[in-house]
Amino acid sequence: MNQQLIQQVEDICATRGVRLTPQRRSVFVLICENKKASSAYELLEQLKASEPKAKPPTVYRALDFLLEQGFIHRVESTNSFVSCCSFGEHKHFSHLLICDKCGNVVELQDDNLIALLNSNVDKYGFQYSNHVIESHGTCQTCSSLEDHT
Question: CA 20 to 30 Å from 128, out of 49, 115, 136, 144?
Fold first, then answer.
């Protein structure tokens, strides 16, 4: 795990006056290390390797905190979680590419798309609290595997 990334998260937490507890830190590290989006129960099973007494509320509280701080995203369609590529920003638009074969998720930040979305939101005087676009399909790796079968 990238220590610089963890330090950055710890610094943001300190600036905001919130605590990155050991459990929150562990859940964040697990999410970052997983290549695909992880469900709460997958994270719980992984967490039990280092904290055998971990219970579902531990993971759910950590996920709520990490979401609230903008360090992770919820993949709404699969009820799973991925790290945020521009974490620390409380509100931003993200576009997730989700592979239905392998489960990998890529977060995109496109300034043109964001400008268009902001324009649409502003036009209607809408105050958004969360905005995630999810595109499902097959990633390049899985597509090329299909081509070879």
Answer: 136
